[in-house]
Description:
The longest helix is centred in the middle third of the chain and has 23 residues, at 42-64. A three-stranded antiparallel beta sheet has the order 1-2-3. It is 53% helix and 8% strand. The chain has one domain. The protein starts with 12 loop residues before the first helix and ends in a 10-residue tail after the last strand. It has helices at residues 13-23, 42-64, 69-89, and strands spanning 29-30, 37-40, 93-94. The radius of gyration is 16 Å and the shape is elongated. It is built from three helices and three strands. By secondary structure, it is mostly helical. The chain crosses the membrane at residues 47-65, 71-88. This is CXXC-20-CXXC protein.
Amino acid sequence: MTRCQNCGEKWTFEEKLKESFKFTFDRHMTCPHCQSKQYQTHRHRKISALISFLMVLAMFIPSFLSAPWQVYVTTVVTVVPVAFFLMVHTYELSNTDEGDFWHE
Ligand SMILES: [Zn+2]
């Protein structure tokens, strides 16, 4: 469950999705309830990195099995949305910018 650390309101999946697109361009997300700046926690950045790694790994599995191209397409079409969903679903927020996890 994702809660704003400033006002304590829950963020819906749609709100997280909307803010995650903005997050690509700026490091913070804006709480839709209190308009405060919220940042991803260290923990969530690590989780995101792990999900990305598993996503890439999953996309390589068909090539190890010498699978036909239809399997590659099916894998990418399945894995990418699932990975994206998991990243958004597991969001954790912080009032401060904790920096990138490799800069602890
Ligand atoms: Zn808030």
